[in-house]
Amino acid sequence: MNKHPDPRRVARLISRAQNALADELDVKLVPFDITAAQYVVLSTLHSGRANIAAQICKELSYSPGAMTRMLNRLEQKGMVRKAPSIGNRRTVQLELTEEGQRLFPSLLQASGTVIDQYFGTFSAQELDTFEALLLKMFAGK
Q1: Domain parsing of the chain, residue ranges
Q2: What is the pairing mode between strands 80-84 and 92-96?
Q3: Would I find Manganese among this entry's keywords (predicted)?
Q4: What is the dihedral of CA 55, 58, 63, 68, to 10 degrees?
Q5: Rounded to an integer, what distance in angstroms lies between the CA atom of residue 33 and that of residue 70?
């Protein structure tokens, strides 16, 4: 057994896990013509964690340009609506359209299937420990 664990190996595994989850979610979302990245934006809007592009950029670590392109694609698909903010004309409020609201439960179910596929073999204690370690990694950042 390795006496000195390599944090780079752990970082590579985290990256690999994130990519695997996103790739599998992309596959599950094909029938809905939504990508994993688009789902994350829709989920952020649905949950109410953010409702303007700048907030979503911050939450998801997206560049403003990438977010603009993503929101334009979601708007073209009829999933997101942009509306001027009542309090600030320079800010655009974002919300799910009726179609976005209608489709979201199916998207959430697809996401749940992927999450269960990858985390379903973990015990509650293992998940608690994993979450605690990840939170510790981000503490103070």
Answers
A1: 8-108
A2: antiparallel
A3: no
A4: -20
A5: 13
**With 0-12 CB in 10 A as exposed, 13-18 as middle and 19+ as buried, what is 82?**
middle
Amino acid at 124: A
Residue 15, both tokens: 């990256």
Q: What is the pLDDT of residue 32?
A: 97
CB hemisphere CA count around 125 (13 angstroms): 0
Query: So what's the architecture of 8-108 in CATH?
Result: Orthogonal Bundle (1.10)
Q: Residue ranges of the alpha helices (H) in the chain?
A: 7-29, 36-47, 53-60, 64-76, 98-119, 124-138
Distance between CA 112 and CA 109 in Å, rounded? 5
Q: Rounded distance, CA 123 to CA 21, Å?
A: 19
Three-class DSSP category at 72: helix
For the stretch 26-80, pLDDT in tens is: 999 999 999 999 999 999 999 999 999 989 999 888 999 999 999 999 999 999 9
